[in-house]
Amino acid sequence: MKITALKPILCHAYRTNWVFVKVLTDEGLHGVGEATLEYRERTVAEAVRELERTFVGRDPHHIEALWHEGYRSTYFRGGPVFMSALSAVEMALWDIKGKALGVPVHQLLGGMVRDSVPCYANGWFAPAKTPGEFAEKAKAAVAAGFAGLKWDPFGSAYLDIAKADLCLALENIAAVKAAVGDKVDLLIEGHGRFNVATAVRITRELERFDILWFEEPVPPDNLDALLEVKQRSRVPIAAGERLYSRWEASTFLEKKCADFIQPDVSHCGGIGELRKIAAMAEARNVAICPHNPSGPVANAATLQIAACTPNFFIHETMAVDVPWRAEICNEQVRFAQGRMFIPDAPGLGIEINEDAIARHTYEPRELRHYTGQLTDIRPAEATDYFQRVKK
C-alpha cells in the first residue's frame, strides 16, 4: 500500500473553520485527521499540501518513520502551523492502520484501560452575557448530564483587569455556583489573559469557589511566569494547549509549572506524540486533560487516546455544535451520566462527507477572546451531536 495524496478539506463551523485531512492510498483505503487551527485554517491547509513531498509514495503503515521524516524534513521545525499539519496526517495514518487491521486505534496502542471517560462541558454558555443568563445556561447544561462546566468570565480584559470588571466576573462565577451547587466541577478559563500580579490576585478570589482548575492564567510564552502563578496560587492550575511537541512538553513538565497538562492532539504532533507526552506526565504523576474544542475527527482521536492512557483525567467536550456537524460526518458518540463512551469501530471510527462539507464553505473569522464577544461561540440553532443513552 502506498500513499497517493494528502487532501486538506475546510468546513465552516461558525466560530471557526474545521480543517480535515484525508490521506489517500493506491488501494482505495483512506484515513482522516484534523488540523483545525483557529484563524489560520488556510495556512495550515497549505502546510498539509507541502507535506505531500515527503509522504506520497510511502507505506502508510510506517507511522513512526514517516512522522520523524516529516519532522526532520522541515528545517524550521515546530510551531502551530507545521505541527498541526503533521498532527492531522499522523492521525490519518493511524486511521488507515486501524481500518486495514479491522481494529480501533486504541487496540494498536495497548488496549483499553477504560471504556468511557468523564467529560466537562465547554460552549454551554452561548450566548449568555449577564450572571443571571450564565446561571440559567449552567442549569440547562447540568440537566443535560454534564458534571463539569468550563468558561471564561473575564470579558475583554487583557493583562490587567479593572476592579468593576473583576467584580462582574466573580458575580458570574458566584451565580453559576449557586445555580448548580457543590456537586458540579467549575473550571475557570483564562485564555492566557493576565500578567502575573493580576493572575495571582484572581487565584485568591477563586479560592472561595472550590474550582477544579484555573486554566492558562498567563500568556503561554513564558513558563517561568506560569510557574510563579502556580507557586503563589492555592487553586490548581491547568495549561499546555499551546505546546507543539514532546520537547516543549518536557520543559513544561520539568518546570512543574502546572497541576494539569493539556496538549491538543490536533497541534502537538498527533496521537503518537500525545501518548509520549502522556507517558512523561505519568512518570511525574501529572494528569493529562487534552484540549479538545475542535471538530468531530479531533474528538474521535482524543477518545482513542482516553481509552488507553492511564493518566487521562477528564475529556473536554463541546456541549452543543452547529447543526450540520451531523451532516458532514458519521460520528457515533454515546454520552451518559457525564461520560463519553469510546467507539470500537476500526480506526478512529469516523468518516467525513465531502459532499455535505461542500455546502459549508470557508468563511473567515476573527479572534474574539479579548473583545467581549467570547460567548458568541455557537449559533442560535446549535444542537447536540452525540447520542444520550442510559447506562
Please outline the helices and strands:
Elements: E1 3-12, E2 17-25, E3 30-34, H1 41-55, H2 63-72, H3 80-101, H4 105-108, E4 116-122, H5 131-143, E5 148-151, H6 163-180, E6 185-189, H7 196-206, E7 213-215, H8 223-232, E8 237-239, H9 246-255, E9 260-261, H10 271-283, E10 287-288, H11 296-308, E11 315-318, H12 325-328, E12 334-336, E13 339-341, H13 354-357, E14 387-388
Parallel strand pairs: 4-11, 5-6, 6-7, 7-8, 8-9, 9-10, 12-14
Antiparallel strand pairs: 1-2, 2-3, 4-13, 12-13
Helix pairs in contact: 1-3, 2-3, 5-6, 7-8, 9-10
Explain this structure.
The model has no long low-confidence stretch (mean pLDDT 97). This protein starts with a strand and ends with a strand. It has helices at 41-55, 63-72, 80-101, 105-108, 131-143, 163-180, 196-206, 223-232, 246-255, 271-283, 296-308, 325-328, 354-357, and strands spanning 3-12, 17-25, 30-34, 116-122, 148-151, 185-189, 213-215, 237-239, 260-261, 287-288, 315-318, 334-336, 339-341, 387-388. It has 2 domains: 3-103, Enolase-like, N-terminal domain (Enolase-like, domain 1, 2-Layer Sandwich), CATH 3.30.390.10; 107-388, TIM Barrel (Alpha-Beta Barrel), CATH 3.20.20.120. Helix content is 38%, strand content 16%. The strands form 3 sheets. Strands 5-6-7-8-9-10 form a 6-stranded parallel β-sheet. The chain has 13 helices and 14 strands. Helix 9 packs parallel to helix 10. With 391 residues, the chain is an alpha/beta fold.
